[in-house]
Amino acid sequence: MTESALRESNYPQGQPPTLQTTTLLGRNPPNSPRAMGAARQSDTTKSHADAASDKATAAFIRRTLCSHNVLLGNGEKGRNTPRPIEEVLPPLTSSNEVDLQLYAIISVIIKEFVQTWYSKITPDHVFVNEVIQIIAHCTRALEQRLRKVDLEALLLDEIPGLVEDHLSAFRLAQQHSSRPQSLVSDPRIIYHTLHPHPALTPVPTEAVPSSIVEQRENESAWRQLLVQGVLAVLLPTEDLENGCLRALVAEIFAEMILGNGISGKACEGWLLWEGITGIAEVLQDGVKEKDAQSGDTSSPEQSLSRLERFGLLSQPANEPKKSTKPQLTSRHQDSVPMTISTLFWIFIQYTLLVCTAMRTVIMGVATWSSLPPRSVAGASGNNSGSSQSPTIEANHQWRLPQADHPDLRRPLASKQAIVSMKLWSCASQLVELNSRMPWLSSLISMLHWKALFGPGKLGGTEGVLDRYLSHTMQIRVLNPAFVPILLRTIRATLFPNNTLGPPRIPPTVEEAKKIKRRCAATLLALLPSAVAATFFSSDLQVVQLQQLETQLDCLDDAYLNKHLIFQIVELIMVRLVPELGERGVQELIEERLG
């Protein structure tokens, strides 16, 4: 029995609580404006949750893809209990939970972008059925290829390596463009010279309007060739021979997903800042839940210390009450004087922290022998960190990074240790650790060398620390049980109530600055006061926010962000479809069609 049902059973005949009962429970009267607003908000949240439930999702898929009874088969019409979705539609993956969420996303796309114009041409659903069969064939092939990809190297080494190169090139371009003696003052030109990409050539400038048109044409050609190359490998031969069907499917994926979704929206700086803000808020909620479970019921707006909140420090009676309104002043303006009680509880806190760390280390060492060895990907070239950009030749013999690159030819036996992957150097580059705290960077480098070549080689490949980090990565990040939850969250965010949300109006310059400042404030709230004051060399929140905003400037230019996003897309494609890095698109099509 659920908690709501348990609450309803406490009242006679399922009657809701009366006004007196509500007042006693400390709730708002039902007719008050606050209660009515809360009720409307709860109804909206409940409707979104109901639309995202498995039962409502299955019903939506049936209405969109199965209402015509073409795919239902014999005996489906007239049944009291409908057949499960997995028995009606072709499987997309090996998991029914993942298929349900994927079919829900496909249903929204087909309803909004295909049926709106296709139903005006003809009432049949042959084309929709063919699209579903093609998508099912491609997703099953991609799942088999995904099993051979070294996801640890992709997420912890290759993608962070691209981010690190982006940060280095951006800061170098800003540094050179700000010099008065520099011949090139446009940071876009400097960045593109350091990291050229064929889809973003030439650099669009207002002074040369033809460069904007030429760059858009090259970007459109890049999208089409990328999708055509993937379809040339994954599509069945009979569907690949159908040029009209192949062109229509390629147009949907190239323009709708890559064009409008990734190139048009995902590269905007304000959208990336909002995404970072959302992730930081989720992390804050996790910290709040841990504090609530440990008995800490404080809110971020409270300026009292933990010792004061628990009544461990007394406050003078004549001392005015501290304001709960957050102010951009020194974090230590209202610091509590160090007393014996304060020192005692700080000692207890750090003792518990050290004990917890020691317990984690001991448990990791004790369970090391039982941890499984790191899995080795079956596809060659999945350990690489190559960020080489593709080239578009004159005859459109376009291909992704070449498979004969030295990094791509690295043998699978030389698996890289997790502590040596580029995630850590990328984090150091992101926070500018070498320039802010060179002593800490040197200390980390020494610990890294000791972990790799010190006694026991704890951080080496298949070492104690390496296996522990890999096992934690497999459980906390790469757990297949998280995939349906992630897909459901993405669908609820992009398509609320299984429909397209209202078009997002791009923010103005001032609104974008507010989004960036909010992102910086959310990230700053994740840091303890002492850590933030030491790292930013200032106790003032204004100074700390300004420095964080300066670090977030690396995502300000959408054109520069496209270099990073496009390289990530290419990297993922060449890992899933290694044939794209070996032969051109025209060669792949001719090989398949004979």
UniProtKB/TrEMBL annotation:
Q: Which UniProt keywords apply?
A: Cytoplasm
Per the record, its GO cellular-component terms are: early endosome; late endosome
Domain PXA span(s) in chain numbering? 95-284
Q: Name one GO molecular function term.
A: phosphatidylinositol binding
Q: Which domain of life is it from?
A: Eukaryota
Compositionally biased intervals (Low complexity): 12-26
Q: Which InterPro entries match?
A: Phox_assoc (IPR003114), SortingNexin/PXDomain-PKLike (IPR051837)
What is one Pfam family matched by this protein? PXA
Q: Name a single GO biological process.
A: early endosome to late endosome transport
List membrane-spanning regions. none
Q: What is its main location?
A: cytoplasm
The UniProt annotation puts the region (Disordered) at 1-51
- Protein name in UniProt: PXA domain-containing protein
Give the location in the cell.
Answer: Cytoplasm
